[in-house]
Amino acid sequence: MASLVIGLLVVAGLPSPAAATVSSDRLAPGVTYEEFTRTTARGVVHGHLVEVDLRNPFVVVDLLTAGAVAARAPLSTQANERRAIAAVNGDFFNVSNTQPGVPVTGAAVGPAIGGGRDLKAAVPDRQRFGPGLPAGTSTRDVIGVGVDRVGRLATVAFEGKAHTTRGGFAIDGFNQYALPMNGIGVFDSEWGTPSRKRSTCGTDTTREAPCSDNTYELTVRRGKVVQATTEPGEGAIARDTVVLVGREEGADTLRELEPGDRVRVDYDLAPNTYIPFRFAVGGFPVLRDGQPLAGLNATTAAIRSSAGVSQDGRRLYLMALDGASAGLTIAELAQLMRDFGAASAVNLDGGGSSTLVARKVGEPAVAVRNHPSGGVERAIPNGIGVFSRLG
């Protein structure tokens, strides 16, 4: 395990705050847990780190979820249901709405891939929740592990198209709580049961803007339109069914179809890497190729979570701070992850969502290792889970 240096670390000529290991333990072959402190000008930061050797054949890393894209559960519940030995919370999510009467979906901001399956695409940048994005990043950025067992940062785009006897049209979103203006989104069985109304609210520039007054929804079962409505609906979607939701010009396009029409909908996530992901989760980069991104916020401290990978992609670092800690700025977070050994890292959801859980192989359930800032675990949509084939 990469050790924490006690004292001042000097990187690129700049001193880093003192850091010290409080305790460490092996959870399973290839997986270690460490409790640490780090001193900043604002006080002592207390945190928790899980380091994973992705080369170890007994170790698997995958996305944890609450059972659907638009569902939430405490991280410990998600981890115990999948028998993970460690986990950290994942992406920012739709935690609140300003549009009266529109249900909160709880769906994550960025792309999500779990078990090699595409689960959702990214919302428009200005529809996201969380701190401001650093220059050059977007909601499409992810961290994940490929089928080659190598961790990496990537950008995941969405590609979709519908084909009908009257021609084709683009699909602009997939299982996401916000669609681009004039767009059409596809929802499938992975979405869950919440209302799809939120996908037609806000604009490309303002998350808080009202919902569109021009919407349309088609239900397509086994390649045939079986229902058309003017308002997005709710409820579970069968595995042989997809639902198309349009807003503005997208709604006008869908109105050209009617029950009985044949429709084939093709869609998938397209990472900018040749190696497919086994899992990927959204988060904005703070460290890339060993260097913090330019212009990272260096003034606002908060409780944060992060995931990072080593230069060769063979080691994964999962970190969460204690809720009672002084907190870190985004710039300090990037430095901390580099000190652990990460060459690339992302900022995950923080504040009351920051949670790290762990157990040793053979123990019946994970324990929450940090102290969530809300006093109890927050229900969240996803997390990064670490699994051991030894149990």
Roughly how much helix do the residues carry, as a percent range?
under 10%
Q: Categorize the overall geometry.
A: globular
The helix-strand sequence is EEEEEEHEEEEEEEEEEEHEEEEEEHEEEE
With helices defined by DSSP (H or I, 4 residues minimum), what is the helix count? 3
According to DSSP, the number of beta strands is 27
Strand arrangement across the biggest beta sheet: 3-4-5-23-22-24-20-21
The chain-level mean pLDDT equals 94
Which sheet architecture does the biggest sheet show?
8 strands, antiparallel
Unreliable spans are 1-18
What does this molecule look like?
The protein is about 5% helix and about 40% strand. The protein is built from three helices and 27 strands. A hairpin with a 2-residue loop joins strand 3 and strand 4. The longest helix is centred in the last third of the chain and has 11 residues.
Labels describing this entry:
single chain; 391 residues; mainly beta; 8-stranded antiparallel beta sheet; 7-stranded antiparallel beta sheet; 3 helices; 6% helix
